[in-house]
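Technical annex B. To support the medicinal chemistry partners, we prepared a structural model of the target in complex with guanosine-5'-triphosphate, based solely on the information shown next.
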Amino acid sequence: MDVHNVDMVMSAVSAAQYPTDGKPEIALVGRSNVGKSSLTNTLIQRKNFARTSSQPGKTQTLNFYNVEDKLYFVDVPGYGYAKVSKKQREEFGHMIEEYITSRKQLRGVVSLVDARHEPSDDDVSMYEWLHYYNIPILIVATKSDKISKSKFNKYASNIKQTLGFDEDESDFQFFSSETKYGKDQVWKWIEAHI
Ligand code: GTP
Ligand code: MG
């Protein structure tokens, strides 16, 4: 999709604050600092529209981005950030769970993992949980500019094995917001699901 118009419509912490116009939604989940906001910026062709940071824990609310009046991207706070207090972590968990399990407009989830590392326990739990709720999942292995393309197959099988990836039910794509690698494929997946 060629994106010209995007605005951040809403920062929500609970269901009462979600947009009410019924557009399809695609959510982005993943560990803190994995690159969710950067992926959003790449897809919408903006540099720092979704605020990114080398400090984990930047995104703290559900942020709804209206893209071309066709869909919302929902940038979700990252999980697994140790410095966030236990109480805050519980609040984030509740906020994400409420959104994922109750949102009729949710068409799919782009779940980001770091291409370089074995998925964390939290990544595995997130994958299993989304899978349990029958939500279409695209696993995006990001920061792939940090590994050589000749090793993509090896890295992909490691990631899939750790996640318990279901080839029939989920999809997988390498991505980089530095080089834009995989951008068209991610868009294609999103367009096929909205
Ligand atoms: P939270 O909002 O804290 O959950 O983080 P986030 O997942 O939104 O991560 P964000 O997009 O803010 O990126 C975190 C850091 O990783 C920033 O310093 C980015 O520049 C860097 N980064 C993100 N994507 C890539 C990528 O594809 N390649 C490389 N090399 N760096 C990346
Ligand atoms: Mg973010």
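Notes passed to the chemistry partners:
Helices lie at 36-43, 86-102, 121-132, 152-163, 183-193.
The first strand starts at residue 6 and ends at 12.
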